[in-house]
Amino acid sequence: PPPTTFKLHCSHRPTYTPSHIPNPNYIRIFDTTLRDGEQSPGATMTTKQKLDIARHLAKLGVDIIEAGFPASSEADLEAVKLIAQEVGNVVTDDGHVPVICGLARCNKSDIDKAWEAVKYAKFPRIHTFIATSEIHMKYKLKMSKEEVIEKARSMVAYARSLGCDDVEFSPEDAGRSEREFLYEILGEVIKAGATTLNIPDTVGYNWPREFGQLIADIKANTPGIENVIISTHCQNDLGLSTANTLEGAYNGARQLEVTVNGIGERAGNASLEEVVMTIKCKGDLLGGLYTGINTRHIVMASKMVEEYSGLQVQPHKAIVGANAFAHESGIHQDGMLKNKSTYEIMSPEDIGLYRSNESGLTLGKLSGRHALKAKLFELGYDIDGRELNDLFWRFKSVAEVKKVITDDDLRALVSDEVFQP
Ligand code: KIV
Fold first, then answer.
1. Of ligand 1's atoms, which has the minimum distance to the CA of residue 103?
2. Contact 143/169 with Cβ under 8 angstroms?
3. Of 55, 74, 92, 256, which residue is most buried, by most CB within 10 angstroms?
4. What is the DSSP annotation of 302-338?
5. Pocket test for ligand 1, best of 101, 196, 235 (most atoms within 8 A of CB)
6. What is the pTM of this model?
7. What does the pLDDT look like over 379-405, one tens digit per residue?
8. Which atom of ligand 1 lies closest to the CA of 174?
């Protein structure tokens, strides 16, 4: 039977029981950096690195950490177990203990291994999945619809029978699955005891309106859905994962699956920082949605994942890219010097970025005199009039050949040591 209580997993956050959700606008952030993220080619991490990341995710305020896929290897099982034992039992500064989740295919051996690993957490979760699209059922599973429903139903019931009262179910490739079939299988797993229904756009094939409608249709047509949490899991094959995730939330999803820096299979997943910061900036337009994420830990999370996974963040990546708060053109720099809100929609400190240069100005060939003067002032030089004019033309000639002018270049220009007109 469906559970009647859901464990309280954070003191300052809304808690819920499946039958009574007191804070309907609260969005649970489910981070799968350590599972789907690690599935990125070449992103394998050591157990110690995974534990470090899990600790930081807890500090960040992530509600659910998908720590791995325990059946995939002994090492993964051990890593998930360690995370469950440590991170799954420590109360963080903001007073919450994250749910620790392990992935399992719909078979007893995977589910046993997932339970073996997560059961040490205060709030353990098993996440089980089976594909539901025609393409996957025909070519990959070679199973009929009836067989898939029976497998899903019996394996969710099996996970519950082990003593796990928090079971998530995903119909893999839901984005390309037939609607009526989805309503049926989801209704059956709810009866079998699933507490979260995750709707994956596994191949990133949906576009925002389509994915939002999918969530709305599932919400309207699945029997028993009012007793569970609807979740999204959007891949980024068309570059739409963040937009699809937000449309999912707008249409009723209250758990969003994301990864730090958007890492994951192929083109990756919806990125935690983009989803969370959009909800923070636009929560009102999204109907008052909010998360429990302490956004000031975002930059640190991004750096840690970049270093440990070896996957470099592109400079123009939204929120955490090196250029996300850099301003080079003269017009933009002039605006920034007058008021930062002219070209910044959030403050870098909100995500834990403390710029060494207060103004965020990056000097290059498009920069103007005002920016040069301001930048020099930051470095301790108060230069004006003809002196500034001379320096500006010398600066311009250097900027023509050098893409970025560093603080050291400027010091050298001022002291005339290196660049002479
Ligand atoms: O992309 C996907 O479908 C998944 C599921 C296991 C949620 O990763």
1. 6
2. no
3. 256
4. HHHHHHHH--PPPTT-TTTSTTTT-B-SHHHHHHHHH
5. 235
6. 0.87
7. 888 898 999 999 999 888 888 888 778
8. 3
